[in-house]
Amino acid sequence: MGHKPTKETLWVVRPGVVPYRDALALQEQLREKRVDGELPDVLLLLEHPPVYTRGRRSRGEDELAFRPEWYAEQGIEIVTVPRGGLLTYHGPGQLVGYPIVRIGEVQAYVHQLEDVLVDALGDVGVTAHSRPEDGPAYMGVWVEGERKLASVGVHVANHVATHGFAANVDNDMRPWEWVTACGLPGVRMTSIADERGETALTRPPASEPFALERPPSAELERFSELVVRRFAERFGRRATEVPFAALGVELPAAEPSAEVA
Q1: Where are the alpha helices (DSSP H) in 124-247?
Q2: For residue range 159-184, what is the model confidence (pLDDT) as tens digits?
Q3: Which domain does 97 fall in, by range?
């Protein structure tokens, strides 16, 4: 029997490690299907190979400490995207969530995403909060008002949202130190592992080569389950895990884009 969409259903799909450009093309395919009513709301949970992404409010080269060629030598791509927000980083050990969902008011939706992450972090013993009073530059989730643990940025077309959130679980944090993280000079990035004092993966010695790949993280898997539960609670959905094939699309191999720094 096939998976039949219902109004209250949230399909949860875990495609694994997906190159960033491929994920962009995939989101657009799913957005079109959601607009046409061919799919229910979908939550993609995945990881990316190392990449910096720059949102609509990014400020040119000011966010980069080095020339783009230097980042290429480290194996990190730089991509400009249509979501809100400034520069962010994705890499192995970070949980990325792309809800392809029909929404109402955009800011209310963004705050709901922040609340989902705050709730899930509380489940793992990390007390966090959002900072709506500080303006759009401070979107995301913070610890003790100064350490940023998760980024949020969305794009909405025809009342369907794409993009979403990225939470640092136990990823190598050095790439954050090579840029002006989130376009905020002096911002300190943190992770779940950092907040627990478990820094073997997140803060390796500078002499250790930067790894472009790593084995799957058990902690990331655990945190993703909590995010699903909290997302379903906040948005009043019934979460159902489905295989990628249920989406009725192929994982695209995106064409190179001119929007590369």
Answers
A1: 174-177, 192-195, 218-235
A2: 999 999 999 999 999 999 999 877 77
A3: 9-247
